[in-house]
């Protein structure tokens, strides 16, 4: 894979560093002992934003319009309670 810095940006008043990571999906699946998911592109670009303490603030990616994710993280160090959603709210990722 590759990584390069896009530059400094502002996110909710905080200064963050934006990076783009390009991952070789076949190598990533092999490293996890898994087979490549059908329809997965050869390379996948992730956008990653880190705060001034190098903590992940946001990560986003899009797999050919099939699956997209844009996740933000905040409240580092705070105690949280995580609960699985009801079974009716869980779906399987699409397979080709």
Secondary structure: elements and pairs:
Elements: E1 2-11, E2 14-24, H1 25-31, E3 43-50, E4 56-63, E5 67-72
Antiparallel strand pairs: 1-2, 2-3, 3-4, 4-5
Radius of gyration, taken over Cα atoms and rounded to an integer in Å: 16 Å
Strand content: 35-45%
Q: SSE order in H/E notation?
A: EEHEEE
Count, helices: 1
Detail the poorly predicted runs.
none
Strand neighbour order, sheet with most strands: 1-2-3-4-5
Query: CA-to-CA gap between the ends?
Result: 24 Å
Specify the overall morphology: globular
Query: Helicity range of the residues?
Result: under 10%
Structural class: mainly beta
> How would you sum up the major sheet?
5 strands, antiparallel
- Overall strand count: 5
Instruction: Name the average pLDDT.
Output: 83
What can you tell me about this protein's structure?
The protein is mainly β and 96 residues long. 7% of the residues lie in helices and 45% in strands. The chain has one helix and five strands. It has one helix at residues 25-31; strands at residues 2-11, 14-24, 43-50, 56-63, 67-72. A five-stranded antiparallel sheet has the order 1-2-3-4-5. A hairpin with a 2-residue loop joins strand 1 (2-11) and strand 2 (14-24). The longest helix is centred in the first third of the chain and has 7 residues, at 25-31. The chain is globular and about 40 Å long.
Core attributes:
96 residues; mainly beta; 5-stranded antiparallel β-sheet; 1 helix; 7% helix; globular
Compose a concise summary of this entry.
The chain is mainly beta and 96 residues long.
């Amino acid at each position: 894979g590759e990584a390069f810095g896009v530059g400094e940006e502002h996110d909710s008043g905080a200064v963050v560093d934006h990076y783009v990571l390009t991952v070789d999906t076949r190598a990533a699946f092999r490293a996890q002992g898994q087979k490549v998911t059908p329809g997965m592109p050869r390379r996948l670009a992730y956008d990653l934003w880190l705060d001034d303490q190098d903590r992940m603030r946001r990560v986003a990616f899009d797999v050919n319009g099939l699956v997209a994710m844009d996740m933000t993280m905040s409240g580092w160090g705070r105690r949280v309670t995580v609960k699985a959603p009801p079974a009716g709210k869980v779906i399987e990722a699409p397979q080709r």
